[in-house]
Amino acid sequence: MPKETIGFIGVGVMGGAMAGHLIDSGYSLNVYNRTREKSDGLVERGAVWRDSPGEVAAHSDIVITIVGYPKDVEEVYLGHGGIIERAAKGALLIDMTTSSPALAVRISERARERGAGACDAPVTGGDKGAREATLAILAGGEEVDFKRALPVFQAMGKKITHFGPAGCGQTAKLANQIIIAGTMLGVCEGLAFAKKLGIDPEKLLDCASSGSAGSWSLANYGPRILNGDFAPGFFIKHFVKDMKLARESAEGSGISLEGLRAALAQYEKAAEEGGGENGTQYLYKLYDK
Amino acid sequence: MPKETIGFIGVGVMGGAMAGHLIDSGYSLNVYNRTREKSDGLVERGAVWRDSPGEVAAHSDIVITIVGYPKDVEEVYLGHGGIIERAAKGALLIDMTTSSPALAVRISERARERGAGACDAPVTGGDKGAREATLAILAGGEEVDFKRALPVFQAMGKKITHFGPAGCGQTAKLANQIIIAGTMLGVCEGLAFAKKLGIDPEKLLDCASSGSAGSWSLANYGPRILNGDFAPGFFIKHFVKDMKLARESAEGSGISLEGLRAALAQYEKAAEEGGGENGTQYLYKLYDK
Prior knowledge:
2 copies of one chain form a homodimer.
Chain A (H helix, E strand, L loop, with lengths): L5 E4 L3 H12 L4 E4 L7 H5 L3 E2 L3 H6 L3 E4 L4 H9 L4 H4 L5 E4 L5 H13 L3 E4 L2 E2 L1 H7 L2 E7 L1 H14 E8 L3 H29 L4 H9 L6 H11 L9 H17 L5 H18 L8 H4 L2
Parallel strand pairs in A: 1-2, 1-4, 2-3, 4-5, 5-6, 8-9
Antiparallel strand pairs in A: 6-8, 7-8
Helix pairs in contact in A: 1-7, 9-11, 9-12, 9-13, 10-11, 12-13
C-alpha cells in the first residue's frame, strides 16, 4: 500500500525539522509556509510547494499544521478557501500547534461535517526534539483518527500519548505548560534570591539540582541563566500564549490557578520590558536588577 | 586524638536519626529534647541525657541543634541559661534548623564574643535523607569552623557545601525552598487542571515527568497525589515557615518574589483549611474540589 500523501503547513524551526523526518520516512509531501523561503530545503528534497493552505489540503490525504497562534490555526482551517473547505472526504487533519482546546473541538466538528477526521497533537521537546525526532506528542481525537495518525507521529516523535477525544491533546499540553510555569518561577526566583542575598548562585545551582529542588528546568536553564545566555530555546512570547490559553481553559472550568496567574503576570512583564524574543529563562532578568 | 563530645538538641524524626549516625561514628553524645521520651533510643545506645540545652552545652565540645522554629532557635541559644551562656570557650555551635539568616548572624556574633565558633547548617533530603545519612548540608560560618564541623557533617550527610560566612547556609536553604515553592505550585496546579478538564492525570503525569515539565517534586509527589496519599514527608506547616523566612529575607534585600508570594498564600490557605499537618503535596487539594 503506498504511503499517504501528507500536506505540511508551517515549516519553521519546529515544522521544518518535523517535515524533514516525514520525507526521510518515505512520505510524499505538499508544503506551504507564510514565508516561502523556509520551505526551500524541503522542496529541494522533493516536497511540492503549494500556494495556500487550501491548495495543500486539496492535494493531500493527511494535512499537518504547526503554525503560530490560535488565530492562525483558525484562519488556515476555517478561513475562506482554507483547509476545511478544500480537504477531500476521508482526509485526516492534524493540528500540532499549541492552541485552544475549544478551537480543536470546533475544527473536529467542522471536519466531521465534511467527512474528514481530525486530531489535535501539540508537542513538547523543543527544537532539539524536533531535530532528533524525539518529541513527545500529546494527542486528542477519535481512536480511529489517532490510529491512522500514529505512524506519522512515530516518524516525528518518541513518546506518543492519546489523551482522549478532540481537544484532549491541547488540554494535556496546557497542563504540561502550567507545571513548567510554576517550575520556571521557582527556578528564576530562587537563583535571583541567591545572587541578591550574596551567596554563590553556581554553588546553589549545584546543590539544589541534586536534591528535592531539582527539575529539568533547573538543570537546563540554570546554567544558561548564570552564564547570561538568554537565547531562545522556547520563546517567552510563545510561553505567554500558552499560559493565556491555559488560563482561559481554567477559567472556563471554574478552577482558579494562582501560580499560573503569577507566572503569566511576571512573563507578561518580562515581555513588555522587551524580553518576548528571548528564551523563557529570561524571566530571571526581571529579578536580577 | 579522642573524638570531640557532641551535644545534640532536638532529637525528633530528623535529629534522632542524625544523632544516631554520630553514635555509629564513635562520638560521645549529650542529648536534650523538649519531649524527653524521644531521646530514649539514643540514651539506650549510650547518649547521656541532660536536663536543658544549657546543660548540654556545658558538657560538650560541639553543640548541634535542630529544633522547630526560629523562636525555638533563639530561645535555646540566646535565652537565659541557654547555649551561649553555658558553652565553653572554644566550643563550636551548629544550628541545623531551617531558620533566619539574620538570627544565624546574631548567634554567630554572640558566640564569638564568648570565644566560641558557630555554623548554620540546615539540611535537605527529609526523613529519608536523615535515616540514610544522605542529607545535603548547606553550611554558613567561618572557614575554620566549617572545617572543624566537616567530619561531623560527613557522618550525617552526603553533599556538603560551604556557602560563606554566618547566615549563608540559611540563605542557600531558603533559595532552595523558593525553587521548590514554585515547582510545587506548578505540579499541583497542572495535575488539578488535567483532572478538572477531564483528561487522565495518570497519563499526564507519565508524559510530563519524562519531558521538560519533569522535576523531583513531580516524580515524587505526583504519584502520591494521584493515589490520594497526603501523609507528610515534609509538613505544610514547616514549609510555610520556610517560605515566610524567605519572604522576610527577600523583602529585607529589596527583591520582590511574586511566585513565592503566590505559593505562600496558597499554602497558608491550605494550612487554614486544616492541612498544616499534611505533606506539601496536599496543596493539590486546594484545587481539586
